[in-house]
Design a protein that fits this description.
This protein has 240 residues and is mainly alpha-helical. The chain has helices at residues 34-51, 58-74, 85-93, 128-132, 155-169, 178-189, 194-203, 214-239; strands at 109-112, 123-126. The longest helix has 26 residues, at 214-239. The protein is globular, with a radius of gyration of 19 Å.
Amino acid sequence: MPVEQEWRVGLCASCLEPLDPAEVGKKHVGFCSEHCRKQAEKIRYVRQAIRDGRSTDPLTALVISSNMITFLAFDLAYTRPRLSDELRQEVLAQNDGRCVSCNERRATEVDHIDGGSIELSNLRGLCRRCHVLKPRGEIPDDLTRDGAGTIDTSEQSQELRQLWRLALRSRQPLDEAPEWRDLRERATEYADTRFGWITQQILCDQPVCPAHDGIHWRTEWPRYRRTCREWAKERATASS
């Protein structure tokens, strides 16, 4: 992988794989897939949370470990259809606005009961805690990169996932506990693997991919998006 930080026209802004110019007109402009775009969102979230101290909060650490890191370790992405504001409000208003699981706290998050269907009968309102603690069954195919259930079960990825869990459980800021050091060392050892490289992207000061850095994303993404569209048009013209 290259080490300097810059936007690379023609390469996916997350995984650095070559882009198909014919696909650039879609909503995941700059990414090889919607899957990669969603994974970049999670990487940015985790990077920011462990730097601003939110990851030391027990519930936030649990969200990062059970959702963000688990998704990235298995190579999953939440690419299901977006809920309309009207449907979201209708779901959260059920049960008098209370979580349907604990029936105590206010429902703030929409849960898919089974798979990714956004039919009203498959949606329910949960509080954040109950949503995080919800028992997870088999991984639905629509969360996987190929849509056919393929996940990353390599020993390296699962070892890194466990080290992430230990680092987050330490409730210490980044690099202020031995668990963070252990995670860094193993990520360096596994740098040539998919999740090892992603872990390095999260832990380092300047990730190789600007799409993984919150500041660059906010300030530079609009310009790069335009550049990427222009590149695709030029490629299409040259091949016609």
